[in-house]
Amino acid sequence: MKEKKKTNWLNPETTAENEKLPRYVKWAWTSRGLSLAINVILIMQLTYYCTDMLGMAPLLVGTLLLASKIFDGVTDIFVGFIIDKTNSKLGKARPYEIFILLAWGFTIMLFSAPKMGTIGLSIYVFVLYTLINSICATFLNGGDAVYLARSIRSEKNRVSVMAFNGGIIMVFSIIISMLLPQLINGIGTTKEGWTIIALILGVPMAVIGILRFVFIKEVVSTASEQSEKKETISVKEGLRCIFKNKYIWILAGMGLTVSIITNIGSATQTYYFKYIIGNIGLATLVSLSGLVTPIVMIFFPVLSRKLGTIKLIRVGAVIGVIGYVIRTLGGSNLVMLTVGSLLAGIAVLPLSMMMSIYLIDCMDYGEWKTGTRVEGLMSSVNSFLGKLGSGIASGIVGLIMGLVGYDGTLAVQSTLVNTTIIALFNWLPLVMTICLLVLAVIYKLDKELPQIKKELQAKHNA
Fold this sequence. Notes:
It is a single chain. By secondary structure, this protein is mainly α. The chain has one domain: MFS general substrate transporter like domains (Growth Hormone, Chain: A, Up-down Bundle), CATH 1.20.1250.20. Helix content is 79%, strand content 0%. The protein has helices at residues 2-10, 24-43, 46-53, 58-85, 99-110, 118-151, 155-186, 191-209, 211-215, 223-230, 235-243, 246-277, 283-287, 293-298, 300-307, 309-330, 334-346, 349-370, 376-403, 415-442, 445-461. α6 runs antiparallel to α19 and α12 (246-277) runs antiparallel to α18. Residues 1-6 and 222-231 have low confidence and may be disordered.
């Protein structure tokens, strides 16, 4: 029976209607996403590592992280073009999964900075941070939706896999978010201790991260793919198609917003619990609220069928606004912080865990609108804005903290610094969640999609 399922999935003649996936596919698909998510959690501590362990000025750190994002705009376009042009024996996106190993290698190096002057440290941090984000993460994120579209035919199966993917990633992200403050509070008090933390996370996550490449094959051969082999699409033509696709820009805007919301919280949490709460270790208690999130993810496939995938974003954003209001009013009250964080976390779930589904919908709209299916470049637009959000989050923390006079060598900060930390941790994410809700309201592709898919299917059959 298992052999029959395996043959069905790998058989090129299998259709979306009769596709049956082996059970291991969900686990294998989740492996790389989990690895990269843990990498992002660790990278978001870079500002704290640089200011409090390396003694770098927060203004300098913020400037370096933001400057690194200049390269992302260039690399994302080229990576998207490279993926669109790739037609290897391994597939179009699968070969680039190897970058997860490089990402962790560079990350371990980043948190193992040697002793050197300010200029040397600046170059060291800038180069490694750029390699991780502008090269490794660009190839991984840029190929994610393309890989999914070419590995799983059925939209029902894609939603199921991504819901499972999101739930598992969330569980382990919460576990790491709970573990990391304890590691920082224990061995992360010295520069050498951060090297140990990077190794503890990096070595096993690198091994886990490569499992998707090993076990998931690209099996889909579409009419669009065949036409791509016959005609060459230039970068100019690809960009023209993207600029005509209004929904990819709205979706990318939502992705940018979610990235800022998620990463600004991660970047400021350590500061908040160190100076506002008075104990970094208590951040673990707030992270416990996220354990409810995987339960919500279980219901995603059902909710997406009943409400529609876009309404999930809108409902989540409303709940998130309520959560941030509670957290803001709660101040240092751990109960209100926990409840508020739980509700706030729901806002980012649909896009964080099912972005590839939304991207595939935008690809369908783009093909319907322009007659040309552009995949790699489209994924790269979203990837760039997502990473830009991460860079803005890290950069803005360093820049603003530097401007208000934060000094990592002091045990107690000024009133202005403490107010700024509160604003970055609570007020800014609240504003960004309201922006997410506005963008979700004007994103109406779900109403057009049924007719678009019907016309595309007729075109492919012809």
